[in-house]
Structure formats: C-alpha cells, structure tokens
Amino acid sequence: MHLLTIFLYILFVFAAIVLIVVILLQEGRGGGFGEALGSHGRETFGVGSRGINTFTAVTAGVFLGSALLIHVLNRKQSAITVLDSAVQAAPSLEPAPSAPAAPAAPPAAPAGGD
Fold it and tell me: How does the average pLDDT of the chain come out, rounded?
C-alpha cells in the first residue's frame, strides 16, 4: 500500500506540472505561450484545436483522480484522528484520591528549667 501511495504522489506532481505547461500553451483570447512557437504553435495549440483540449481534460482527470486516491489511501492509513488523541490525553474529571492527612505533631515542650 505504501508503494502505491508513493506512485500516486509522483503521478500527482507530474500531472500538475504537465497541466500547468499545457494550459500555458493554449491560446486564449489575447494569445498565449503557443504564439512563441510560431505558426506550428498556433496550429497545434490554438483555440480551435481539439487535440490539446482533449489532452488537457485527460490530464486534469488524472490530476483530480490521483488527488482523490491519495486522500482515500491516507485516510485509511491513519485511523486515529486528532480528536481521538486529544480525548486520550485530556485529564480526567474525577478527583484524585487524597491521602489521609498525617496528624500534626504535638508542640515541643520548651527546654530549660524553671
């Protein structure tokens, strides 16, 4: 299970980086990073291109799916919550048993003679 979680974290980070790059490559209303690639960038990453939009949707799905799986796996691994540990560490409301008080020693007689 631990290996699966590590794989999902790697997939999550990779999908996030790819998603950032792909979104920046898409041309919006005023142009985008696709303009820097010249006419080939406009053909590939333009607003009307269907391939890049599909790729973006699939990458977003992988990103969200891996995030949900990471959450589910981490929730199953840690069954103890913060509230459970706080209840165990809280002091009890029952009074502590008190030890019987020792009788006071009688006052010492004054030394010396009279």
Answer: 75
- DSSP letters of 70-93? HHHHHHHH--S-HHHHHHHHSPPS
Whole-structure pTM value: 0.54
Which of 50, 82, 81, 61 minimizes the C-alpha distance to 18? 61
CB within 8 Å of 42: residues ≥ 6 apart:
27, 34, 35
The more confident residue out of 49 and 69 is: 69
pLDDT band at 24 (very low <50, low <70, confident <90, very high): confident
Q: Residue for token digits 């990073």?
A: 33
How does DSSP classify residue 30? S
How far is it, in rounded angstroms, from Cα 58 to Cα 81?
34
Phi and psi (nearest 5°) for 46?
-70, 175
